[in-house]
Design brief:
Elements: E1 5-10, H1 15-27, E2 32-36, H2 44-50, H3 54-58, E3 61-63, H4 66-70, E4 75-79, E5 90-91, H5 94-105, E6 110-114, H6 123-126, E7 131-133, H7 146-162, H8 182-198, H9 208-220, H10 224-243
Helix pairs in contact: 1-2, 1-7, 5-7, 8-10
């Protein structure tokens, strides 16, 4: 579904903004970038500011007009800070826009269109859109950089996608935060038991003390990293007992 979502930048003046927008896209799982009549592209500045999203920049499709960029789309949403008199449906909330866009992207191409850095989309370009969307902002200073606007709306699209039942999205977790396996816990308790017996803390392998400590660690739910730290502590104590 995300591959059906097209980000269209119209006549971008600064190539660095293309790179920064590509970076904003990639962080939200979007890679389909179309450039309508860019002022200067390709350009090293675009690749430099992509910062890891060079593949999005390199694979960007360049076309001569907005019409060419969106002709095959079933929904085209123009991002605009200024409301116009054109009778287009308008999304006041980006979240509502993203939900609608994602529903259409399930089967067909859709597009999010961003205009020039200085004055956005012209009225003629807005006519190529089926909808408009604005980003709520401070009424005294609602100015967003092009890539910032791309980031905000791309985030809403990604949110709408990951909350769909079939997305299977799972936030990555660092390996050290993962819970240990039952085997790893078993090795830890065996190690703890050996140290307690070697130190004379307990004298019977199945003493009540061991059960209570197992219950304590079950409640504490140490991560793999924490369990490894405890194993290191036990090994250090074992070495000290052997040297005594």
């Amino acid at each position: 579904m995300l591959s059906n979502i097209r980000i269209v930048l119209v006549q971008t003046y600064h190539p660095g903004n293309i790179g920064a927008s590509a970076r904003a896209m990639k962080t939200m799982g979007l890679e389909n970038l179309v450039l309508a009549n860019p002022r200067c592209f390709p350009d090293p500045e675009a690749s430099r500011l992509a910062a890891g999203a060079e593949d999005v920049v390199n694979n960007a499709r360049v076309v001569g007009s907005l019409a060419e960029a969106v002709d095959d789309c079933v929904q085209v949403v123009g991002a605009s800070a200024r409301l116009r008199s054109l009778p287009l449906p308008h999304f006041d909330e980006p979240a509502e826009m993203a939900d609608a866009l994602m529903a259409n992207a399930a089967d067909d191409p859709v597009a999010l269109v961003f205009g020039r850095e200085r004055f956005g989309l012209t009225n003629d370009e807005i006519r190529h859109c089926s909808h408009q969307v604005s980003i709520p902002a401070n009424p005294d200073y609602g100015i967003l950089n092009l890539s910032q606007a791309v980031q905000v709306l791309a985030y809403e699209v990604f949110r709408a996608w990951r909350q769909r039942p079939g997305s299977d999205f799972r936030a990555p977790r660092p390996s050290h935060d993962r819970q240990p396996t039952r085997e790893q816990l078993g090795h830890f308790h065996d190690h703890l038991s050996r140290v307690m017996q070697a130190s004379g803390f307990i004298t019977q392998p199945h003493a009540r003390t061991e059960e209570q400590l197992q219950a304590l660690f079950a409640r504490a739910r140490p991560s793999r990293k924490e369990l490894s730290l405890l194993r290191g502590l036990l090994s250090s104590l074992e070495d000290g007992l052997d040297d005594a």
